[in-house]
Description:
By secondary structure, this protein is α+β, with helices and mostly antiparallel strands.
Amino acid sequence: MTLQSMTGFARSVADHQGAAIAWEVKSVNGKSVELRLRLPSGFERLEPTARQAVQRRFSRGSFQATLTVGRAGGLQPQPVVNEAFLKDIAGLAQRLQEGFGVAPASADGLLALRGVLDVPEQFESEEAKAALDAALMGALDAALADLEAARRHEGDALRLLLLGHVDTIEALTQRAEADPSREPAVIRQRLAEQVRMLMDAAVGLDESRLHAEAAFLATKADIREEIDRLKTHVASARSLLGSGGVVGRKLDFLAQEFNRESNTLCSKSNAAAVTTIGLELKAVVDQFREQIQNLE
Length: 296
């Protein structure tokens, strides 16, 4: 399976018995499938079917779909003005202007009022409506297929980018593991110097207790577990990116685990070189997590 980004755009056009159909669909990041529809007046009946079409194809994303339907070749239905109603409304507007000083009504404002201007239904029979609806949904399905392809194309690019981040995390983990400060002989020498300095600086310290505390601190500062967990998370990330599908949430959780181990590495480090590696890890993990937010 391939990965999908949650961002994309597609447009589909079709013709049905002189009706020019156009769908524009775009998607951005979202926690679940959310759809906003912009439908021409009289086509609200398509909303449930359109929502189902989006939900069948996608698992996550915030979608916006806009439909336009026009008539080609001069066949556009002519609007009908309710002149009696318009006359009454215009008279009321005139009285309000004279009596209360309100701004004069504009022609486009009056025509925009419900009931003043009406566009007659072009497709009156149920058979004609069903045929038009089928053409409209076919065009929507074509737009959604193109959107899905666009999201997959961007998903392929994201996979390469994320794998590059994983490679960097692995390389930094290996650097931390191989850092000379983690050599047992180096650790023993550093602890011995610290104990000697304390013994020289203070009189009456319990030497055996001091050695025990030093050994405890050495154990606490060991980053072996963090390195092992980072290696495990690297393998898991590669597996998820290779399997594809809807893995955005899983990778986001994994990014949190990467961040946790990076923080612990910095806090437990007893060498400047390892601290620097931990800070570099945090920077890469932040980039990794930021890009994951675009994945379905």
